[in-house]
Amino acid sequence: MIPLARPDVGPRERELVLETLDSGRLALGPRLGEFESALASWLAVDRVSAVSSGTAALHLSVRASGIEPGERVVTSPFSFVASANCMVYEGAEPLFCDIDARTLNLDPAAAQAAVDERTVGLLPVHIFGYPADMTALERLAGDRGLWIVEDACEALGAVHADGAPVGARGHLATFGFYPNKQLTTGEGGAVVCPSQEVASRIDSERNQGRAPDMGWLDHDRLGFNYRLDDLSCALGLAQVERLDRLLADRARVASLYGEALGDLEELELPCADEGGDRRSWFVYVLQLPRGTDRDAVMMKLRERGVDSKPYLPAIHLNAFYRERFGHREGEFPVCEDVAARSLALPFFGSLSEGEVAQVAEALGGVLTALSRAV
């Protein structure tokens, strides 16, 4: 079976993890600062705060932006649910609007139309590693006095047309390091902090509300257990050291998929880089022809030794968001169409040319068989 994802870890990761194990400092040790410094240097930013997950990074970022109960934040309904949940944690409401059909990112025109008197911020998602149109969204934020938090959890290594790395535009920006990401710490995440004041707040809130100079059981604010342990930081440090190679390997696999799948009719492949924007490859998600039974495709692929997954469901149609906010089908037609047809194929840096060919052959065979059966 060709799996959906596989982390790329090697001798250097084992070396640093074992060194950390032998040191006896498994949490709140020196690896945290080393990892943060290495990641900040790679991103060309001044400061990064590492946390326990991308979700934790999002939660701390919206809190640092000053979010209050009852406020609204414009965001995408086509994302992993954490980008919306982080607002609900604080009693606020994600204000969804539709996506661009090509990039699958937040449509700036739809975002502008969605802003109302309760809106305080924008939370764009760089979905599947493709840069969102931050120039248009920054213009909107400036015109309406909104803050911005970027969900770059899928986009480490992506670059905007103006040359700025995604997450390095001066906003709070978040990254996630789950095992299927471009860089993994097992679990883990990070926040790019635009000022030392914001970094100090996030560093305190990730550690139960303690300031660095406070005693173990002293707390001067509400905090959380969002720390990233030293074993995870050791793994991440080794990954940063070879991040350029990890990104190149994923781009190679994406190119192989583009060649292998290009002749399959009616498949919609991930959009190509355009206008200077450069994707960082997180997953390989395509859209099946309209009317295709996606569940049948996944079942038949599995019978042929290929794993796959629907990626991603529309957030507003999840049961919680239907019940809590009254969302229904038809609100965001582009998102709903994309979500109903999207399929993630096996994708990781060590995927071989032969395995890509096997996936492509299996998908082509399944689609042909299903079309004949109709």
Offer a quick outline of the entry.
This protein has 374 residues and is α/β, with parallel strands linked by helices. It has helices at 11-23, 31-43, 54-64, 82-88, 108-114, 134-144, 196-205, 230-241, 243-261, 294-303, 319-325, 333-341, 353-373, and strands spanning 48-51, 72-75, 93-96, 119-123, 147-151, 172-176, 189-192, 284-287, 309-310, 342-345.
What is the domain total for the residues? 2
Q: What's the arrangement of strands in the largest beta sheet?
A: 1-7-6-5-4-2-3
Q: Largest sheet, described in full?
A: 7 strands, mixed
CATH class categorisation of the largest domain: Alpha Beta
Can you lay out the helices and strands and say which pair or pack?
Elements: H1 11-23, H2 31-43, E1 48-51, H3 54-64, E2 72-75, H4 82-88, E3 93-96, H5 108-114, E4 119-123, H6 134-144, E5 147-151, E6 172-176, E7 189-192, H7 196-205, H8 230-241, H9 243-261, E8 284-287, H10 294-303, E9 309-310, H11 319-325, H12 333-341, E10 342-345, H13 353-373
Parallel strand pairs: 2-3, 2-4, 4-5, 5-6
Antiparallel strand pairs: 1-7, 6-7, 8-10, 9-10
Helix pairs in contact: 1-8, 2-8, 3-4, 9-13, 10-13
